[in-house]
Every structure is written in C-alpha cells, then in structure tokens.
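FYI - complex with magnesium ion, inputs then prediction.
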Amino acid sequence: MTELLKGIAASDGIAIAKAYRLIQPDLSFDKKSVDDSEGEVKRLKDALQKSTDDLQKIRDKAVETLGESEAQVFDAHLMVLSDPEMVSSIESNIRDNKVNAESALKDVTDMFISMFEGMHDNPYMQERAADIKDVTKRILSHLLGVTLPNPAMIDEEVIVIAHDLTPSDTAQLDRKYVKAFVTDIGGRTSHSAIMARSLEIPAIVGTEKITSIVKEGDMLAVNGIEGDVIVHPSDEQTKDFQAKAKAFADQKAEWEKLKNAQTVTADGKHFELAANIGTPKDLEGVISNGGEAVGLYRTEFLYMDSPDFPTEDEQYKAYSAVLEGMEGKPVVVRTMDIGGDKELPYLKLPHEMNPFLGYRAIRVCLDRDDMFRTQLRALLRASVHGQLRIMFPMIATLQEFRAAKALLDEEKAKLEKEGTKVSDNIQVGIMIEIPAAAVIADKFAKEVDFFSVGTNDLIQYTMAADRMNEKVSYLYQPYNPSILRLIKNVIESAHAEGKWAGMCGEMAGDQIAVPLLVGLGLDEFSMSATSILKTRSLMKRLDTAKMSELAQKAINECDTADEVVALVNEYTAE
Ligand SMILES: C=C(OP(=O)(O)O)C(=O)O
Ligand SMILES: [Mg+2]
C-alpha cells in the first residue's frame, strides 16, 4: 500500500529505487543443553566457513575500492576465524559442557575479549579484542540464520534505510549504488546529513519511523529537497518524481554555467564563496563547483578514517595535498574537533551524558597536548604549500585561545630551530560556535586574525536544542532574531578591528539566510560545495544596500523567525 512519510530534507536530490535496510539484526539467543554435540560442532564449522567466505568477499571489495592497506583490518578478522586455539576451545566447550554452539562460541570469545581488553599496556592486543567482537557477531549471525548488513557490498541501485547513520557509515556509502538514504533520527546539521550533501546523495533524516514501515526491497521514491518519502509509489507518483528529478537536473545545469563566474551582487560587491571539506578527496567537488577557497577542512575525519592516530607525516601529506590542490587560494584548516557525534574509538573517550557539552574538540586537544602538537607541527610544515589559515574549534574563553596559540607558536619556533621552513603568513582564527564567545567577540577580535561562525553548534547551544534530535528540530532556527543579533555582533566586532568574519555552519548556504548575511556584511560564506553555485546565482540578484536595510529591520523589528522569513521573501521578490 502506498504510504507518504515526511522527514527533514537533509540533502537535495530525487531518487527512486529499492530499499536496503542497514539495520543490525537481533543476535540474542538462549543457552541450551544439547546431546548431539557432533551436530553442534558441524553447525559451528559451517558458520565458520560461511563467515570466512563473507570476509574474503568483503576483503576483496575493500582492496578494490579502498586499497590494500585499508583492507588489512579484514586480514586480522580472518586470522581470528582460523585461530586453532580459539576454534578448538569452542569445540571442546560444546562437547564437554553439552551446550549449543551459540553459547559455546560466546563463552570462549568473551573470555578472550576480556583477557585482551585487560592488557592496558598493549594497545595491539586491545585492538584484537575489537576484532574478536566483530568476528563473533558474524559467526553468530550465521548460527542464527540472520543477515548482517554490509553497505560496502551493495552492488545494485538502492535507497538505504537506517535508524541512524554515523559519519563513518555515511563515508562508506558508494554513491554509484546508493541513490539516497532515509533515517528515523537525526537533524539537518548532524554530520551524516552534512556528508550526504558533499557526497551529493539525496537524504531525508528524522522521519521517526521509516525502519518500522519499510521492508527490504520495498520500492521507494525520495525527494530530498522537500523531505518526502513515498513507500510503494503508484505509477503516477513515480512519473511525478521523475519529472521533479528532471527539473532539478535542469536547474543544476543552469547553475553550472556560473562555475567560472565571479561571485558578485547586483551592485558589484564581491563575497567569497568557500567550501567545507572532510577529506582531500572532496577537493574535486570544490573545484567542479567553482569554490573560491576552502573555508572549513574538518580534520577530525582524517583521525576517524584511521585505525590509530595519524602520524605527523600522514597529516602533513593530507594538509599539503589540500593546500596544493587549491593552488594558492585560502584554505582554513580546523584543528581536530572530535566528540559530539564524531567518535574516535582509539581515543577511548569516556561515555558521557551530554557529549555535545562535554570533553570535545579544543578541550581534548589542550588536555592531550601531545596529540595536538603533532597536528600543529604537520600543519606548520604544510604551510609552505599554499595559503594556510589555522582555526581552533569550540573556543569558549580567551584563555583557551591563548593556550592553543601558545602551543602553535612553540611548535613553530621548534621547527624553525630545526631548520624546517614555515610560512610567515598563516592567519590564526577561531570558530564562533559557543554563545559565550559570540557575546565577547569584541575581546576576541583584538587577538585573532579571523572568525568563522559555526552556526550548527551556535544555534544548538543558543536554543538549547540538540542538533541530532528530530523532536526538537523546530528549534533549529537560523533566522531567529536572537541568532541574527549574535552574528551581527561577531561581524561588527571583527570589522572594528580590521579582521574578517566568515561562516562555515550550514546557515551560510541557506537561501533564506544568505540575503540577511549579505546585509550584515559577512565576508566569507563557506558551505557544502554543492550549495556554492546556487548561492552564486542568488547573490547576483541581491543589492547590498537593500539587504542591509533588510537585515537591520529583521533584527530590530521582527519578533520571530517566521516574521524574518516573510520579510526576506518580501525583500527578495522580483
Ligand atoms: C561548522 C561547524 O562545525 P561542525 O558542524 O563540524 O560541528 C558548526 O558547528 O557550525
Ligand atoms: Mg561545530
């Protein structure tokens, strides 16, 4: 039966394809006594063989798509499967205790896991514990006859359905086959939504119930521009979605024409349109969408894509590649912003009640300065390859900025003493994403070279509304006068000290917000690369004096976000 579901439109685009449920199956079982031990041993051996076949296939695919070194983790898993000590312990457990294979497997692997996890001074063995956990899940799935989903193995066109997608799940999606994704939870500024926009995968988040409605293989039609999902679309609805997909493709072709054009308003004022990236691979999208700079390189993805802390040289290579790829255009590299919805297993952060308000980003870096210094050295060494700007995330106080800057200066002095060349022209700035910093932006402006407003966090902290929680997503209100006042304060404080102010939160590419931000005099707009051309097209139609009048009116006369939207529509109507 046809069913229409509404969610939060998270990434533009339209898709029609079969559903692929990316959902972990239930692996619970009962411990049972079994007389036919040989029968259980045979079940175990079959499950081990099937798991080996799976892992072999997954490994081959990983070599093909990610390369030999990324595929090594599967070698470790295969080794666990063929470890004679472990396999024979499970078999003996089945025979000696007359239990079912599931329970014998779990007893033995749990014992190995706790033994390895207890080896605190041996990180290598601790990682083996994680491998055993993964492999146990796979063997159990075969014993129980359920399927473990594996997004990396998708080889036909599908729409992924999930309760939630982590940033690392999202990074694994192959856009050749994954035509869209739809989740139960999440908000427009959760990192999986942000990544969907850079991968150009249409996405809808926060539908609350997609996973309980849609079965594997159900036909779906997804409109990521409006946030509509149709389950089992009729022929007529399919035609309607196909027509919308064509209109969207035509619109994109129109925007494409502006790829090499200047970003200027109707009265000839230039604004810098920059892109947000997560990895050096994203540069392709920045160039093809005519980005004038990189306004935010989220370096934490470099850490998240790696099984252990990336070395100074590995980081140096990544940063140099981005600086060189941009051919002298500015590149704002943000130091590691881990925490919140971005997890780093090997950092072993404690579980927190409120991870977005907890131990994250600069707070971790100032505490674990060994790790931070490595990143700063890599950045300083890379600085000779282009126009580097270093940005610290989640700054709440001036002391934090000063401490981070002092570490940077120390590492710079050390490198120079060692005879390593470092650029003399590195701007050092901060993200404004904590209201405390926005309020005293005038103080910060005396010490930093630039600001970049991180509205994804600034809005969640100002409105006290978790950016991941669809139940409070109505409070993600970029046009609320409270937010506009904070932004105005930041821009004016920067300009009073002759500094520049940019924005790298999703608001910078929001088509209702852009006229207001032009009116407030924001200097740089950094967004998902896929939003650049439509923003350039919009700016061509704006007059700065008129937008300035609009912004002042919105801030002084409007009471609510809705009133601001109505005013913007009035000022931008042609
Ligand atoms: C750009 C921002 O950083 P992130 O989305 O990575 O938290 C922000 O908070 O607006
Ligand atoms: Mg942030």
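The mean pLDDT is 94. The pocket of phosphoenolpyruvate (ligand 1) is lined by residues 296, 298, 337, 433, 454-457, 504-505 (CB under 6 Å).
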